[in-house]
Queue: 4 jobs
Job 1
Amino acid sequence: MAKLMLEVNNLNVSIKVKQKVYPALEDITFKVNENQVVGVVGESGSGKSLTAQSILGILPANTEVTGSIKLENDELINKSSKAWQKLRSNEVSLIFQEPMTALNPLMKVGKQISEVLRKHTNYSNNECYRKTIDILKEVGLKRPESIYHSYTHELSGGMRQRIVIAIALVNNPKLIIADEPTTALDVTIQAQIIDLLKDIMKKRNGAMLFISHDWGVISQVCDYVLVMYAGKIVEQGPMENLISNPQHPYTKGLLKAIPDFKKRGEALYSIPLRVPALTERRKGNWPYIEITEENKQVVADIFPEILQRETKE
Amino acid sequence: MLEPIIEVKNLTKTYKAAQKKFRQKTSYIHAVKNINFQVLPGESFGIVGESGSGKSTIAHLIMGINKVTEGEIIFRGRNIAQLSRGGEREICRNLQIVFQDPYSSLNPKKSIEWTLTEPLIIHSIGTKASRKEKVIEVLEEVGLGESYLKKKPHELSGGQRQRIAIASALILEPEVIVIDEGVSALDVSIQASILNLLNELKEKHKLTYIFISHDLNVVQYFCDKIAVVYLGDLIELFQTEEFHQEEHAEYTKKLFNAIPDVSFTSRTS
Ligand SMILES: Nc1ncnc2c1ncn2[C@@H]1O[C@H](COP(=O)(O)OP(=O)(O)O)[C@@H](O)[C@H]1O
Ligand SMILES: Nc1ncnc2c1ncn2[C@@H]1O[C@H](COP(=O)(O)OP(=O)(O)O)[C@@H](O)[C@H]1O
Ligand SMILES: [Mg+2]
Ligand SMILES: [Mg+2]
């Protein structure tokens, strides 16, 4: 059996805004195994980044967390900030969407990578340099020695994203979290970065949580997917199953909305509901849509859960 | 045969490259070179390519936002390449643009009503009362309505802001709208509703679109013709319907092979 890497159980995150507490994540439960890429897909505001931030221990201060997050059976919730920091430098890494915000424009890129090693290992300067060159090669950058000495503004978007990936990988993390890592890139470069991440995963027996709002990308990278809406997992399952036979009407709706050649000439389906803003949410009331006589049918078609809620009352 | 509404002939734009060293000889970047194409009235003309390939440059030249270095832009039989946008009201009215990020193109301090009324005032159209009527009409056309008049851009979602950007392109009743990555930043369900809206408006007002996108699924769904640009060159131009029957340039093949496989979408519809 595959080794269990990450286990999230009944994770709840609430956020305080102007003295009031709102539910941001409700009952998030899923697993990531070694050698597995788990995708998180959903519209913006659905809680994808907050899920990542919870696992990395980088939630903003105005949040409250309950539930359990275990990395290789080690409970992370309520760890000290020092312990989190150690974890982030050795065991869990984050790859950001926007390479420019993750990189320092004033420092040579090679230095930025070797700096990570210097801080968190006992390697000599020479070893740090060699490891950095190795990782630059691994992320597919040619002439790593000259890349080492360049600055971010001298590199293309695709190259910068490779540097960000190198920084995330250099400490051999057990779990990589990629939050929209290809969203800012062009299709052709996107495809290269996706291939790179897949290669690296294979070589390292890694585990990855891959966040994207783009089903095309998700379908290429992931073995297993979580579909989120307004802070909850609507549906989860193995990739192939989920896209060929989605169970939840919301998932079906998202998939139907994707344009392609075959849909030419017909109007696209669009989900007639928007993701409620945080401050519109009331705990226990998911999907947080005010039900009226007029919209009841529309909402129930997409979230049949509201019908169960009524019969319970 | 149908006369093209826009024809671009040998369109070239060069920029001076930033000088790296003092007194270095100035070098030039060809943002686009020798581009030729015709857009027929009522067509959705797609332009695809990687970032930096010259898509926005083409859009800006057609719009008169940037000056043409060489070549012609024929609009309804007349070369407009050397005209200044401010000086030629009629053309300015007839060509409108929608950008990717309406947040940066909408004035954050001004109400939606102000944003939509401003072009009418500039073009001395209507009276105060009739202008307001027109603004409300356009707001309704883009699916928003009167209640949005007093709102500011930050009070709107991404999809709503894009609807306002479309409304402000529509208000002068143009013939051609250039859409530069106009749906690229949106979630798929919102993107679907905006694409539907654009198609409805096109039908209703007999619009012509020049639709720029790096998203090949969107372009293959939306456009009648597709022009592929690479490093400032127009590599290939084809009818979307015939894409699967024809032989294509190597670059086009590479670009279209990189499209993530979303064939499952048909299984669910
Ligand atoms: N620090 C914060 N303060 C207030 N609201 C927040 C904060 N962080 C996130 N949110 C809200 O929580 C919801 C989920 O956000 P996020 O996880 O960033 O969504 P996603 O990544 O899926 O787009 C959104 O409604 C967002 O506005
Ligand atoms: N104002 C400018 N000055 C110098 N170079 C520019 C300017 N605008 C665009 N370019 C260059 O022209 C080329 C084409 O850019 P652009 O038309 O924006 O491409 P796209 O829209 O396809 O991403 C790029 O190499 C870009 O750097
Ligand atoms: Mg996010
Ligand atoms: Mg552009």
Job 2
Amino acid sequence: MIEVDAEKCSGCKKCVKVCPYGAVTMADKLAVIGDECNLCGACEQNCPEGAITIQRKKVEIDESKFKDVWVVAEIAENKLKNVTLELLGKGRELADELGQTLCAVLIGKDVKSYTKVLGEYGADKIYLAENDLLEFYNTDSYNMIISGMILQFNPNIVLFGATHVGRDLAPRIASNLELGLTADCTGLSIDEGRLLQTRPAFGGNVMADILSHTRPQMATVRPNVMKKLESPTDKVPEIVEVSVNVDPRGMRTKVLERTEISGVGAVKIDEADVIIAGGRGLGSKENLKLLQDLADELGGVLGASRVIVDEQWLPKSQQIGQSGITVSPKLYIGAGISGAIQHLVGMKSSDTIIVINKDPNAPIFEVAKIGVVGDLTQVIPALIEAIKAHKAAQ
Amino acid sequence: MKIVACVKQVPDTTEVKIDEKTGTLIREGVPSIINPFDQFAVELAIKLKEEHGGEVSVISMGPPQAKAVLTKSLALGADKAVLLSDRKFAGADTLATAYTLALAIEKLGDFDLVLCGLQAIDGDTAQVGPEMAQRLKIPQITYAENVVFEDNKFIVDKLTESGLEKLQVKPPALVAVITPSDFVPGNPPFSKIMKAKKKPLDTWTADDLGGDPERFGLNGSPTWVKRVYSPPRKEKGEILTDPPEEVAKRLVEILAKEGFL
Amino acid sequence: MNIQTFSEEQDLFRESLREFCEQTIVPRRTELEDKKEIPDDIIKAMAEFELLAPSVSPDFGGAGFDAVTAGIAAEELARADPTCSIPVLYLVQCSWGHVFNKFGTEEAKGEILPKVTKGEAICGIATTEADIGSDLGNMVTTIKPTDKGYVINGNKNYISGVREAAKYGGGHVTLARQDLEAGTRGMTMFFFPLKDVPGVTISEDEEMGREAISTGGFIIDNVEIPKHYLIGEENKGFYLVHIGYEYARGLIALVCVGAAMKSIENGIAYIKERKAFGRPIGKYEAIQFALAEHYTRLEMARDFAYKALYYLEKEQSEGKYSRMEVSKIIAMSKLLTPGWAFNAIDDAMQWQGAFGYSRECPDQSALRAIRSFTLAEGSREIMRLIVARELLGKDFIAYK
Ligand SMILES: Cc1cc2nc3c(=O)[nH]c(=O)nc-3n(C[C@H](O)[C@H](O)[C@H](O)COP(=O)(O)OP(=O)(O)OC[C@H]3O[C@@H](n4cnc5c(N)ncnc54)[C@H](O)[C@@H]3O)c2cc1C
Ligand SMILES: Cc1cc2nc3c(=O)[nH]c(=O)nc-3n(C[C@H](O)[C@H](O)[C@H](O)COP(=O)(O)OP(=O)(O)OC[C@H]3O[C@@H](n4cnc5c(N)ncnc54)[C@H](O)[C@@H]3O)c2cc1C
């Protein structure tokens, strides 16, 4: 499946260096591919001599059968999620480039009212499925309905938000229909008519460009990465009502209890544009007040590293990181957070990262755009004062 | 209760470094570990077994070296292990991985619960769990922090973006877990490691699994990695060490420039 | 690369233990120094992780460690606890638990060892006296058979774990003279309890380091112990005591390597960061050369220590190699390693400048602790005597 052409291989070791699995070794100045090889292709792409080839099976796709770009809409607390609007923004670009239609898939109980906003943010057409049993997300029913729609309408591209719901649902559908699915994309573009999907892997240490050779091409996309339309239009989308039969017996998981811990109506941390996060360096719960004041000035929400949640100073819904929520706000201010890797992977794709820490060696400085070495109990009050002064001056 | 836990061997991505000059990953010296969420899955499986009786099987697909994570799982208290190892499995995307794992789970026989991690820290997709559940035609719950068994049902605590949900599902089901904040990974002592040595650990190849050979590995994978490269390096940040008032001034300048004020 | 290759299980054990140490011991260093005792919860965690007398057979709650595995734990514990208090408790119980387990009576083992492995009692070693250390044949403590058991008189001094044994229970594997005419051939080994024993007066010493484990002495005034506390045969104690010593010496070498390697690693991190005269001090060859030498010595010491323990294990479990051969190779391992380790830590502290001398720096704890190992369980001079005796033969023993 993977072969090294002994004639061409110059023994330069480039492949040894680029292999993320450490699978390539050199024997007699010839690259040898070991068992650890996962056929990821890094060596193939990087070989200056073109000596390494992976045999891939040829796949013929009848592109003409698959049309349109779909965005699966997500609603939380009576509001469309930001990521849905962002996906419409991106979807618009893709659809225009392909000369196809941008469609939204809207599922729920009494959700027709959302079609207006979906249209304003770019959707040409909306596939609408309404049923009283669809009030809350359920893997089984949503899978059944969307899989059915895909089979019926043959879209070319289907995009989901990489949210807790999207990441639960999209792979279920992909497996149901035997489709490729690219996870957590941070970039989407059209490459020779195909969807080129860019995503981080290895904890953000590498980026991968991925293509699917099944249709529709499916991807989940990180929130806060794509841009929604800057000036919403007043377009009225076409609505296609899809009748659905929902059998409650087919919904095999039941919600017994729902606890909203971030406070009803509060901006969810994964959707926030501005996050002010605190860590161990806060020292005492009282200092959270400082962060709250700063958040109020900047219109942000509070986030936390794991210790703060363990201490129960903030609820679990505010925990950023590997076992919490992954965020990528426009502005992240971290105070007293040293930057354990588990926290870093959850925030390092934020746009502007400002950190305040006493210890100049704290790992979080490595991802910071602005690093302040100082005492947060002095820096933050000073910052709040300065912001107030700035606002007053305007 | 019969439980199957899926464990993946992964490079400790927290120790992966980027070569400053070439911009490539430095794999050398990076230890291979059990995917952290999967260790919780295994320990949760063992806890359920201890409370309700039964058997815990662990499976892993990977190169022969992946045996280490199975041995560790056995030392933690799992009863038997199967390594799925074959060159034909190489290059599997999540769909092919889920196909292979699901075949193995079916081959192991009846089960009540499949536990897996929400996501592996290398591939990072979180897709294998739901894709397996679909293939096994069983319900799934993802982002789970705990599972208990009551009245013949699993009660699962699930983390949502705005809070928590308590869900109920009848066996057989698949639950994909994240580590709750109070989880301290267990470390097996020596005698358990020695006991693990005596527990069954089989290796199954593509032939052992049967199934459609076209659906394993690279051939069975609809996604293709076209290019792998290192992310554009963020330029080194600006470090401010001035007194708080000075720092505050500079920060306001930046915040204003970026449109946050 | 190790000459001694470890089994897959041993590698897994080291990995598991290192995690255990990171979770349980590493964050508690200053607490060990300040409170001057090993906190109960650590003892409990060690019991669960089978680190208390793990050489003892599983019948008595032990983990059935072989000597090489025991060495792995010694090395890892010393990396985690620079005060070496935990490693000392570990190595003493592992070594003397082995002797007790192998030569004690079933009754005594059933009574005492399960408590030791659970962390409810101590099993130490007491040979040294106020006026005698190396020259055991001239000790003053005596043991006399009675109808019911034995009566002991005398004293022991500089003994590790006395306060703990008096507080929690357990006691010490002890040596005394029985046939006063026969010198070292008239010595008997037995278990001597320390908690609430009438006729025993306990004292404590203040030590330079290893603050979380006590060192002390006890005067024994006509104390009777039951017959089943006898270890091995009467008048054969001097032979048995060397098995325990050798076990302990082998482990001490790895405690030294573990602690010193950790200091060297701390030193490396520091010299890469710290700048003097415009560049990291790690750029100066004076520093680099010292680093290279310490590291080389420690790696050599490490491999040799595992080799020595491997010999001991083969001799103890399979009768391979002679006692004398094992004595020699173990003595070689303990002869130079504590000194090398001490010097390595000394330099690692030096590289860290004033910080190295501050309480905040773990390496100063290690320095003070490691200094004891040129003495404890046999001084370095005695190690030289043993090696030379094996090379030249008995006729060349100087003091005969
Ligand atoms: C750079 C890069 C990017 C990739 N992107 C994609 C992509 O977008 N889409 C895609 O389909 N594939 C992708 N792949 C392939 C994917 O990494 C592999 O299919 C991998 O085998 C499983 O995916 P994962 O690591 O993301 O597992 P996840 O789905 O994150 O794993 C979830 C859980 O499934 C179980 N599990 C996963 N793998 C195994 C295993 N081998 N043995 C036992 N249990 C297991 C574990 O319990 C794990 O915690 C990518 C690969 C690379 C190298
Ligand atoms: C921290 C600590 C803890 C200890 N814990 C215990 C314990 O738990 N149990 C226990 O029984 N003992 C314990 N000891 C005592 C230790 O075993 C003795 O210190 C050691 O055996 C040396 O005995 P000594 O101190 O009486 O010195 P001595 O025997 O009096 O010797 C003094 C010096 O003379 C040297 N010397 C002696 N004979 C010769 C010779 N023939 N040629 C050249 N030089 C010679 C010695 O090497 C030493 O340097 C401990 C010691 C320390 C420091």
Job 3
Amino acid sequence: MMDRDTWLEIFHTVLSNPLRTGLTGLSIALGIFILVVMQGLGAGLETGVKQTFGDDAANLMEVETGNAQLAFRGRKPNRRIELHNADEQAMRSQMDSVPAWSRLVYRWGSTVRYGNEQGSYGLRGVDPDQREIGQVNVTAGRFVSDRDIAQRRKVAVIGGQVLADLFPRGTKPEQAVGSLVQVRGIQFAVVGTFNQSGSRWENRSVYVPFSTAQQLFSNSDVVSRVAIGTGEASIDDTRETTTSLTGWLKDRLVVHPDDAEGVWVDNRNEQAEMYRQIFGGIRLFVWFVGMMTLLAGAMGVANIMTIVVRERNKEIGVRKALGATSGSIVAQIVQEAVFLMLISGCIGLLAGTWLLQGIAPFVEHEFFSNPRVDFRSALLALGVLIFVGVISAIGPALRAVSIRPVEALRDE
Amino acid sequence: MIELNSIRKAYQTGSQSLIVLKGIDCTIEEGELVAIMGSSGSGKSTLLNVLGLLDDFDEGSYVLNGQNMDGLSEKAAARYRSDFLGFVFQSFNLISYKTALENVALPLYYQSVPRKERQARAMAFLTKVGLADWAEHLPNQMSGGQKQRVAIARALIANPSVILADEPTGALDSVTSDEVMALLKEINSEGITIVVVTHENEIANQCDRIIRLKDGRIEGANA
Ligand SMILES: Nc1ncnc2c1ncn2[C@@H]1O[C@H](COP(=O)(O)OP(=O)(O)OP(=O)(O)O)[C@@H](O)[C@H]1O
Ligand SMILES: [Mg+2]
């Protein structure tokens, strides 16, 4: 029964010793505040890192080549290793089924022109699977298709920033589809647009068919990179594939088995796993610190309630004589403790949220962006507060229950 | 209303056992106003606490309102207390941060009576004890006599069959004592059984009957 009298009694407890209540409340508020702020900073770090390293699907492997450092089978050190179309085809045919496969050629700093506007963007020749692999969010029109590849069509899918830079203000993505743009001086038809929320670099790129890009913008049949989607494969499976694929590539491209730079397979699954562990660790740490502070607060509340019960020994005896059951006494003490926890906790929560919102605009950085309190953590924190409140009330409540009315009523 | 048969009770202090009630037999009829007297330490309060289900007893039987009170659980005792019994204490035992009205209404809170009705009934009983104007006062703003009248109103509010008062006038001067006693007699005349523990002959003499305790036994009774 939560009516006015219940509240009156809660307020009496809370206000009967303002200093004691204030100090305990402060430690709880501080606990939640630290929890919220650190959690928000952790989230900011995570967002920043994700934005900087792109939000590609994590289930992928990338094959890249570089300069071999070691002499091998009569070849000199420090030689350029290249992956040609024939190597790529052989690689594909020796692999078991792969969920997604995209060749890439890059041309950084490609001039793209629309009407009188022009700018410098990243040009990416890709296969249709790139849409899945790069989790490209197509906002209008379509992505590169198999037919584009087969027919080497001059079609382009442009990023949100390209659209905003080159097209008149307020042009909608759908309106840009069908227009003609000059890419490195050659006319392409815009068949689609995309927008990667929270990704700085991707939105400054233009996707064109791999075959078209290789023919027009590269002088050879070199593949810059191959991205292989790994679908639902487990991390162990992808590790195994990475090892065997690296071995196969080194053999085919004549690279020393110990050479780390000739050709390599970048297993993003593993990176993602590492990030997961790092951020998981940060989260765990944040919760640990917050919990410890909360624990201190909870002990404070338990202490207050113990004192309250002791001071009100006689009163509790009188209440029992007047018909209070053990249940109603326990309920009262638990309500008081939970109320104290919740009020202080909410103050900490609000202060933390307020601080994070206040600093958010000033702390934008390459590895740090948009610190915030997510709703789930806030709810979880409140849940923990209620739980801890109940726990801290158990001891004092049991003590109150054990008070026998006669003993409390004895007149000294 | 109340039937005690060979009630025995001992307090255990360390290894020693102090027998306080050594076989109490007595009957109190419905509507009686009974005084319990006896020297200090004779067991008056102990007996009253047994009657009030605030304390248990070792041997014997206690029948209240036709129901046997042996081996009652805490919960059942609380239930009977709130259904049949009202208490008045020497030191009033009002809750200091609650107004007179809220103090009187408290027993109804534990019977889950809605707040509005609690307030209305509490006001009616405060009026009955002549303190309608003091409803919003805190106990420390009232005299001893007023506080005891608030306590009596609180004892009455749940419609008890029996009121148990342990030295209700022990902390009051003779004038206010008389007022309180007059109030108890008025309540008694409405049919409520009252048991009063007292040291004072003037109080005891106003009762229908005096039970004298000596050394844990009833010494004798007169009408
Ligand atoms: N909880 C207890 N533990 C041990 N002894 C007790 C306890 N309560 C009462 N006694 C003892 O039992 C005896 C009877 O006590 P009780 O309070 O019933 O006396 P009383 O007749 O009410 O006395 P008074 O007139 O002083 O109030 C006393 O000797 C007292 O010391
Ligand atoms: Mg006594």
Job 4
Amino acid sequence: MNPTVPSSKTSPQAQPVGQAVGARGIVKAFGVGDARTLALKGADFEAREGELHLIVGPSGCGKTTLLSVLAGTLASDQGEVHLFGTRLTGLSTSEVTRFRCRNIGFIFQQFNLIPTLSLVENVSVPLLLNGAGRREAEAKAAERLQQVGLGGRERQLPTQLSGGQQQRVAIARALVHEPRLVICDEPTSALDSVTGHQIMDLLSGAAQAPGRCVLIVTHDPRVYGYADRISEMEDGRVTGVHAGESLSSFIHSENRS
Amino acid sequence: MFLLALKMLLGDRAKYWMLVGGLAFSSLLMTQQYSVFQGLLSWTTSHMRNMRASIWIVEARVDQVNETKAMRDTDVNRVRSVEGVDFAVPLFQGVLKARAQDGSDKMIQMIGLHSGTLYGRPPRMIAGDITQLRLPNAVIIDTVAAEVNRLGAGMGRPLRIGDAFEINDREARVVGICETERHFFGYPYVFSSYDQALQYAPRQRKMLSMILAEPKPGLNEADVAQRIMKETGLRAFTVPQLEKSTLKWVWANTGIPISFLTTIILGFVVGVAVCGQTFYSFVLENLRNLGALKAMGASNMLLAGMLLLQSMTVGLIGFGIGIGMTALFGLTIAKSGQPPFLMDAAFVFEALAAVLLICALAALFGIRRVAKLEPAIVFRG
Ligand SMILES: Nc1ncnc2c1ncn2[C@@H]1O[C@H](COP(=O)(O)OP(=O)(O)OP(=O)(O)O)[C@@H](O)[C@H]1O
Ligand SMILES: [Mg+2]
């Protein structure tokens, strides 16, 4: 019933305290022969608990690929991933699936709400996947919808909502089971700037929860200001990490260019 | 999750109805064709239900009840002398022409019963007295023969007791009316005494069609039949044996089973094709959603279960509609007996199993696709 991973496979002593995500030497190639592309060429990455962490970089540099590897939805060819002290690399597919189910919330660029299910049903999915009963799951889901400003619309279908509202439903869905890691790929790129800021407000609120980490891949310099830390990527590697003062100057330079 | 799986399917009205419709059609085709086939088969053995006798003895080369090869009159005595036979009587069976009041000719199934015992008599008399068959020129006709478009032609009403018609220029006077099950050839039954039947039928060297026998009380019919065969060289069947042999003959010698079987298989194939195709495209259209579920932690097992549930549900609904339509067909159109219709419970379950198999196959394609699905696809635009 409990989907947490056996402790024999965790190695907390190897991981710094407070580290949420740790990745070393991640290599990932797609295709074979002439069509083979190295999307990740030995990427190192770290994110801490309690932070909203942006991953930025030019198109095609491997941001989505890295995020997929960190989330355990894509297996890397080389390298290791640790999430909250659990070594993801080396777990079986079903163990990784169970780990994701319990510990990770997802927000996608295209929202990916199930169009034939009502909002409350969409939001209750992670709870149901974790074994909750329907009544309990829908009660919690309704509460979450309330929190993202969609109270009273539980029975509507996603198609009745604007893009920003749909993304709020997706946020409710990503947070409903209180995951420790929230993974977002371009959550604001399909939205206008005002709506984008509302979404980022919600996400940075979510990052306040103790022990949680929110990881966001983005192209959008307007949202850099929400970051506690930014990892910069280029050509399959993480080339720089900005926090504190270096973060301010990075944001300044990016917003000017 | 399973409830949501059903909602996902129901939400896609077009595919849902396509699936239910395809499966209903397939179920209808299979069960309706099977029922008509069974009905037709039952027509081939209706003699055994329209004439009641324990042991049926025929010429050595005869395999089925609708075929007659004339036997020698002395064969009756040979059968009587077999140990265990209580009594044995001759039977005439032949298709003759009768002339109705208006002068039109109608084909009839003539049956001549031994006048002493009237053994082999029709089980359901609805008017008249069977023993009156012993009177000269007396016949008992079935309700079909009595109809205005049969021997009642020219009367303006169905034949009644006391009415007369002609068989081979001889008078046939109705002394009773019985109910029969329709025979494969579709000719109405006319019963007379054996001797009378020989008068009606065109004269031939040998006129005995069959012998009917009753075993002594307490003896096993099959044993006695076996003994008759051994001692006389004729063929003797109990009713179940003759039914089996007749059906076997139909399977071996007519195109009927093949053509029905083809249609039934076609129904299955159409079901697989329509359902498989539609369900697979349902899965493909939902691939992003399924990928998202997979990313969120739905296992392959769970997704497979959801897909199976979805396909089985449309299977059950489609089958329900299909079998309902078949039943409706049976209760309305086929009530007249044309086309024949005979539904048996065992086949209902077989057809249900076939439909669920179709659904499982359809789901299997989807399950394979989903099992190979990388959850990371949901991050791609
Ligand atoms: N499934 C795949 N098959 C083949 N090549 C892939 C696949 N996914 C990614 N790639 C390639 O890997 C490289 C990195 O892709 P990725 O999507 O990670 O970049 P990205 O930084 O997210 O880009 P964008 O900002 O455009 O989303 C690209 O060259 C891309 O073409
Ligand atoms: Mg990307």
